[in-house]
TrEMBL record:
<dbReference type="Pfam" id="PF15979">
    <property type="entry name" value="Glyco_hydro_115"/>
</dbReference>
<dbReference type="InterPro" id="IPR042301">
    <property type="entry name" value="GH115_sf"/>
</dbReference>
<protein>
    <recommendedName>
        <fullName>Glycosyl hydrolase family 115</fullName>
    </recommendedName>
</protein>
<dbReference type="InterPro" id="IPR031924">
    <property type="entry name" value="GH115"/>
</dbReference>
<keyword id="KW-0378">Hydrolase</keyword>
<dbReference type="InterPro" id="IPR029018">
    <property type="entry name" value="Hex-like_dom2"/>
</dbReference>
């Protein structure tokens, strides 16, 4: 280890050996920015130079430092290696946390920083291709920071590099196409969504008036694939082979040109894979290729119907909830294990796994994953034992809500990674991001997973924050529709009637409510007791936001079901008052999520959730308000004054009617408040 020191100050200049290299320019900007953030005095002028050294014999991602005559050189054989070296200095010398942007981690500013340890090394990685898939990116798509959405994506790419990524899927569909050049300029290899083979444009968008049928229009598909490869020339790419329908579904759902047996399906897919493979070999011969054994391909693979080139990497997907089995799609839940699939061709294998997930039904979008990071750690170690670690693509969702799990995924890429307990993971996390109440915080994070609802037969089939709003909207629609039934809920209930379905859901959810209420109460007390504003901001934006989405959503769901049950059991119109108040409770609980979002103590994040179109809490609140009004219409008069006259007004005022009324009807919310006061002993 070199013992000489190098003093970093505001007068330290970061230079690059090639001003035309965009990766070096981004690395230069990051390091110069971090020096400005961490030092405030100008000392002797000196230099850190970032250099591409093509002659070094070291592995291409590795970096090394040289201090000579008051100048530090950061060298690597590759541009991404130089970037990794810069980020190592930022982390280990300047003290910048990998998730500084998302956690607003404070820095300890000093006059200058003496750099003495030049023995900083790239971690030894077991996983060759380490990637993030920034998917379901609705929040990131519309959010701006520094008056710029591009700035947000740049920070996402920087963070990916900080945790060790060398691969990125920089969004979905058009977002990915827009971002891939920028991501490449940060040094990242571009990969592709499993529904967007080769990164090609969607057929239905390019040809909106044509059926998306390869059988009918093979040449149009081939042109899209060729155009995509040519558009990515000059970028480093892991090409995704395969064929799915428009919008991430089986292709034959868009193609009625024939009867689709398994053999017919496999013939088309095999032909397409062969053509795509040959096309990549022609235009980008050294590029690696992968195929996602996902969805319908899982069954075809197990039946021996897929014909794949031996040098293609197989990517197998977890359940979306961290379990190493095939995902549930609607009512189809085969739970095919992915770890023990024979590999007679000895192809390289990897994983597509999730920290965030949007399955339109029960997953986590706005908050923490519903299975703990310790559960994920255990599953990842099982995958490694089965040599499924050539590539690992992690669905990050919108990053900020999922940092706890993203940190663990990044650690799992290292050679020395071993399964970790929940206490170990949480203690490290709390130690990193909080400076007070650490013991209590570890317990509160644990309570989050203790309270999570198990919706399915298996312990990993747990309900994320999408579960409650998804069900609330469908229950309301079924309720007010003649002979209504829950739509898209066969995976959860199928009891034959709405009443029986809701009874099952209530029995599943209601036992968790006291635990959720206790956790929210404990967190709100702690938020008041914390002395440091930064700690409050972190807790509020991390665990509290996740817990309130779960707790308020589930409380609203149960109140809605109680309102339905009360309505079904009503003997007279006045009984509907209680259903009206239960619906009002549901409105209040669901609206609490919006209040918590609006009152975020960190101004930076207050509008981050505005484009929530998956959980769609605003729409859910709107639907509940509609139901509350619907119940008032059933029980009150057409003029909406009877409940007020009989239950709210003083008896004398109610009887004296020289004027029929002296004011307009009360709002639903105000009437509910008044009725709750008067009927409190009967509720």
């Amino acid at each position: 280890m070199t013992t000489a020191g190098f003093e970093i100050s505001r007068n330290t200049q970061v230079t690059i050996s090639d001003v035309t290299n965009p990766i070096l320019k981004n690395a230069q900007a990051i390091l110069q920015r971090d020096i400005s953030k961490t030092t405030f005095a100008g000392k002797e002028q000196n230099e850190i130079c970032l250099v591409l050294d093509h002659d070094t014999a070291s592995q291409s991602e590795r970096y090394y430092f040289n201090l000579k005559e008051g100048k530090v050189t950061i060298k690597s054989k590759s541009s991404i290696g130089v970037m990794y070296g810069v980020l190592a200095v930022s982390r280990s010398v300047l003290g910048i946390d990998d998730f500084w942007y998302w956690m607003d981690t404070p820095v300890d500013r000093k006059e200058s920083i003496l750099w003495t340890n030049f023995n900083l090394n790239l971690p030894k990685y077991k996983t060759k291709y380490r990637g993030w898939f920034i998917n379901d990116e609705l929040l990131l798509m519309k959010w701006e920071d520094h008056d710029s959405n591009s700035y947000v994506w740049q920070r996402a790419f920087e963070t990916a590099l900080r945790v060790g990524c060398n691969v990125i899927i920089p969004g979905t569909d058009l977002t990915s196409h827009k971002n891939r050049q920028t991501a490449s300029e940060y040094g990242l290899i571009i990969a592709q969504h499993h529904a967007e083979p080769l990164g090609a444009a969607m057929f239905a968008r390019k040809y909106p008036n044509l059926t998306a049928s390869y059988i009918k229009y093979p040449n149009l598909f081939r042109q899209l694939w060729k155009d995509a490869i040519l558009a990515q020339q000059g970028l480093k790419v892991v090409y995704s082979l395969g064929f799915r329908g428009q919008g991430d579904k089986p292709f034959w759902e868009d193609d009625d040109s024939r009867e689709w047996t398994k053999k017919a399906i496999s013939r088309v897919i095999n032909q397409i894979i062969k053509e795509q493979y040959e096309m990549v070999k022609k235009y980008d011969p050294d590029a690696p290729m992968a195929i996602n054994i996902y969805g319908e391909l899982t069954g075809l693979y197990r039946d021996g119907l897929l014909e794949l080139p031996d040098d293609v990497i197989e990517i197998w997907a977890d359940s979306g909830y961290g379990k190493m089995v095939s995902r549930r799609q609607g009512i189809d839940n085969p739970r095919v294990p992915i770890l023990n699939v024979p590999n007679p061709h000895h192809r390289q294998r990897g994983l597509y796994c999730h920290a965030g997930f949007h399955d339109l039904q029960a997953s986590n979008f706005l908050g923490l994953m519903s299975n703990s990071p310790a559960f994920v750690s255990s599953e990842l170690c099982k995958a490694r034992q089965n040599n499924m670690d050539t590539i690992e693509l992690v669905n990050t969702g919108n990053i900020k809500p999922h940092i706890l799990h993203l940190r663990e995924y990044a650690k799992s890429w290292r050679e020395d990674y071993q399964e970790r307990s929940l206490t170990e993971i949480l203690s490290e996390y709390v130690e990193t991001y909080y400076s007070e109440s650490r013991g209590r915080l570890v317990q509160y994070y644990k309570q989050y997973w203790e309270n999570v609802v198990q919706y399915g037969e298996y312990e990993d089939e747990t309900a994320g924050d999408e579960f409650a709003p998804f069900l609330i909207r469908r229950i309301i629609q079924a309720w007010v529709t003649p002979n209504g039934k829950l739509t898209d809920a066969g995976w959860l209930v199928n009891e034959g009637s709405l009443s029986a379905d809701l009874k099952k859901i209530k029995a599943m959810v209601e036992p968790s409510l006291p635990g959720w209420a206790a956790l929210i109460r404990n967190l709100e007390i702690l938020l008041l007791e914390m002395k440091d504003q930064h700690n409050r901001n972190v807790l509020y934006g991390d665990l509290y936001m996740s817990a309130i989405n779960q707790s308020a959503g589930l409380h609203a769901l149960v109140n809605l079901i109680k309102a339905y049950e009360t309505t079904q059991e009503a003997h007279e119109k006045d009984d509907l008052i209680y259903a009206f108040l239960q619906a009002d409770n549901a409105v209040r609980m669901m609206n609490k999520i919006l209040v918590v979002i609006k009152n975020n103590p960190s101004p930076k994040w207050r509008d981050f959730y505005e484009n929530d179109a998956d959980n769609d809490v605003p729409l859910t609140v709107k639907k509940l308000k509609f139901l509350r009004q619907y119940l008032r219409n059933l029980g009150d008069t057409a003029d909406e004054d009877d409940w007020e006259r009989r239950f709210v007004k003083l008896p004398g005022d109610a009887r004296v009617m020289t004027l029929w009324t002296t004011h307009r009807e009360m709002s639903d919310a105000k009437l509910a408040d008044k009725l709750r006061e008067i009927l409190i002993d009967k509720l």
